[in-house]
Amino acid sequence: MGCHNTSTLVQTTGEELKVLLMGNPNVGKSVVFSKLTGMQVMSANYAGTTVDYVQGRIKYQGKKGILIDVPGTYSLEAISPAEEVAVKLLKEGEAQVIICVLDATHLERSIDFAYQVMEYDTPVIFVLNLLDIAESKSIFIDIKALEKELGAPVISTIATRSIGLKEVLNKTWELAYQEKGIKVDKCLTQEERWKKACSIAEKVQVSLKETEPSLLDRFSDLCLNFFPGLPIAVLVLFVCLGIVVGGGKALRALILLPILNHWYVPFISSIVSSVLPEGILLNVLIGEYGMLIKGIEWPFALILPYVVLFYGILSILEDSGYLPHLGVIVDGLLSRIGIQGSSIVPFIMGYGCAIPAILGSRAATSHKERLIISTLVTLAVPCIAQTGAFIALLGNHSMLAIVIVYFISFSFILFGGMILNKMLKGEVSPMLLEIPSLLIPNEQALFKKIWLRIRSFMVEAELPMILAVGLAAVVVETGMLNSIGSLVQPLVVGWLGLPPEASIALILGIIRRELAVLPLLELNLNTLQMVVGAVVALFYLPCLSVFGILVKEFRLKAAMLISFLTIFTAFLVGGIIHHSAKLILSLF
Ligand SMILES: Nc1nc2c(ncn2[C@@H]2O[C@H](COP(=O)(O)OP(=O)(O)OP(=O)(O)O)[C@@H](O)[C@H]2O)c(=O)[nH]1
Ligand SMILES: [Mg+2]
Fold it and tell me: How confident is the model at residue 8 (pLDDT cuts 50, 70, 90)?
């Protein structure tokens, strides 16, 4: 999605200050970054939201600088590709100031990390963030004492409310041109450093009273136990599914399709047909695959409602911090397919779009796990646009057909994962899954994030969709479809039992995954054919941009292998369904 900025570092002019934001995962670095630069980057309540560095411009009293947000790191001995990005930037030593964000609710761990950062000769200022949450847990910190212990400025902040951030900028420039960093004992062993961090935390932390855990904390505990955590998880997932599927269908049927069919289509058809004579151009614009008809109907009326609701729900789940709780419950199941509970996040993201899922897997600690997640997401997890297309195709005919398609998808995730886990070399190293406190999402941040995702879908999907529809129109109108149809006849008609025109779906499906489904809507298929078409589309091919990301992350050979696997599975399973259904029907 648009928020994963992987550009190279901009060259700063001599006067521009280069500032690096560092800290443990999930301490609020990206919120600090967004507030200081005005650039929206993803933040969410779990470790591993940021998986690459992003940079933006900052200004203070006419002075300019570049701020770099990096993935969170537990220590400077990076164990995941995401952590490596952060550590590399620190070690390159180009930053003139480091802003190290500390978590007021996990002070020991933050101080331990602070000591590692201070070993580098770069001035550091500390931002003690999440103060509101600390206070709600009755943790109070003596800032002056902490400053004295660390020998560096400490500024307390509540980043989501922009509290303390001006002071951060002020101190950043104040420190900027100091010659050296803070003198710390660089010979401490890991154990000695941790002991020191604990003793400092104990000294500066004032816990006024033993407080009762809040309602959210108690609910968080419930979610983590197998009982009632599992029923809660099932309930949450069903409610989410109901909202996305039911809500999307209602939006589509009650609002979007009527607007389209009663207003837009007659309006645009009458304008275009009054201007253009009958012929190919007219048909390409408003015919069976008219660019101005299907190019608008498919993305806006059939897909967008599901995209909006899915990202709405996903963003609430992310910002509340529920996803890692779910990770704990499904950890046992996921470990069988070589995935840790913490990787539930990229996996669920795959139901939105495979790209953030593949990028998000950078937070996983082994190459094997990354490869399993990326292969499974590419193979068997339908993206939200595809889900919208499945519902458009099957929803009005048979809910059972949708259930069958998703059942096949789950089975392939499970069995495919087990096979990959056995086949691929390497270990999946267990990593402790960090459970954040449950939070009530910040409304403003939530809406911004949902909007960002919807906008990025519209930008990324609309143009390829219109172009693809245009391509389909040309192929149909010029009669090319007939020649392509007869070329793939044995496969499409003989093996899959679909009409020859279904080959258009296979052509368009190369561009975007949902386009392997949408053309089937125009073909008057029977239910079996629809299921076969949907299953072929489910596995078929990663869309072009997903293929690009696979190449970037795993190289061309792996991307080609994954694509071969998906296309082979698509035709194999599609054909088996067609032939076994035919066999069963012939018995009766
Ligand atoms: N209540 C409260 N929430 C905060 C504060 N700062 C950040 N958050 C929330 O904490 C969560 C984590 O914030 P991020 O900015 O994503 O954290 P990060 O350090 O960038 O995390 P990684 O990219 O995973 O390393 C989000 O849900 C934020 O909305 C704060 O001061 N108070
Ligand atoms: Mg971040």
Answer: very low
AA letter at 116: Q
158 CA from centroid of ligand 2 (Å): 15
Substitution site in 27, 41, 43 for ligand 1 pocket (most atoms within 8 Å of beta carbon): 43
For the cut 90, the answer to whether the pLDDT of residue 206 exceeds it is no
Instruction: Give the residue, by CA position, lying nearest to ligand 1 atom 8.
Output: 28
Q: Where are the domains of the chain?
A: 17-207, 226-432+442-587
Cα 12 from chain centroid? 30
**Average pLDDT over every residue of 21-45:** 95
**Could you tell me what percent of the chain has a pLDDT over 90?**
71
**Residue 133 CB less than 6 A away from ligand 1:** yes
Ligand 1 contacts CB of residue 43 (under 6 A): yes
Q: Cα 17 vs. chain centroid, distance in angstroms?
A: 31
Structure tokens at 466: 């219109």
Rounded distance from Cα 50 to ligand 2 centre (Å)? 4
Out of 3.40.50.300, 2.30.110.10, 3.40.50.1950, 1.10.472.10, the CATH code matching 17-207 is 3.40.50.300
Contact 70, 53 (CB under 8 A): yes
180, pLDDT greater than 90 = no
CB 499 within 8 A of CB 493: yes
Please determine, for residue 575, whether its predicted confidence score (pLDDT) is greater than 50. yes
CA dihedral sign, ordered 54, 60, 62, 65: negative
Q: 441 C-alpha vs ligand 1 centroid, how far in Å?
A: 11
Q: In angstroms, what CA-CA distances link 527 with 195, 497, 509, 533?
A: 66, 12, 20, 10
pTM given for the model: 0.91
The residue among 330, 334, 380 whose CA lies nearest residue 354 is 380
Q: Give the model confidence (pLDDT) of 252-292 as tens digits.
A: 999 999 999 999 999 999 999 999 998 888 988 998 888 99
Ligand nearest to C-alpha 86:
1
Q: How far is CA 122 from CA 25, 100, 125, in A?
A: 21, 11, 10
In whole angstroms, give the CA distance from residue 393 to residue 387: 10
| pLDDT band (50, 70, 90) for residue 99 | very high
